[in-house]
Design brief:
0% strand, mainly alpha
Length: 140
């Protein structure tokens, strides 16, 4: 048996897709998609959401999300989800276009409220030099 036959094809595809050293975490999540429980594409996607997004561990205790082992930052959760979905795609032979267009079934986080720019209050000049600096310079 040669080494290429030791790994399952799905895991090998994840290793190939996420080959760079900086992509090792995403390779791991891709392989989690390959090994996810579930017999359908939809069940695999649900498993990826559970793996990649922080949810409260204890029911009705939002603070308990901090002890969830999924990535913390929203951008990491998105990267994790896409890597995991890649693994699901390899597992169920789903086309790359479908995999690339798959998004989590979570509500989008609301955008932060826009802050009003501080109103500029014009303070009166205190010296004659300050008054003259406000005048446009013209030469004849």
């Amino acid at each position: 048996m040669i080494p290429q036959q030791w790994a399952q094809p799905c895991g090998g595809k994840c290793t190939h897709k996420y080959a760079a050293l900086t992509q090792i975490p995403w390779r791991v999540f891709c392989k989690k998609g390959c090994n996810a429980d579930g017999d359908t594409w939809e069940e695999c996607l649900e498993a990826c959401e559970e793996i990649c997004y922080k949810d409260p561990v204890l029911k009705d205790q939002q603070w308990s999300a901090y002890i969830d082992r999924s990535p913390g930052a929203a951008s990491y959760s998105e990267e994790c989800f896409h890597a995991c979905v890649s693994g699901c795609g390899y597992k169920f032979d789903v086309k790359n276009d479908t995999v690339d267009q798959t998004h989590p079934h979570r509500p989008c986080k609301p955008s932060p409220p826009l802050e009003k720019p501080p109103s500029s209050v014009h303070k009166p000049p205190t010296t004659i030099a300050d008054e003259q600096s406000d005048l446009p310079c013209t030469s004849a």
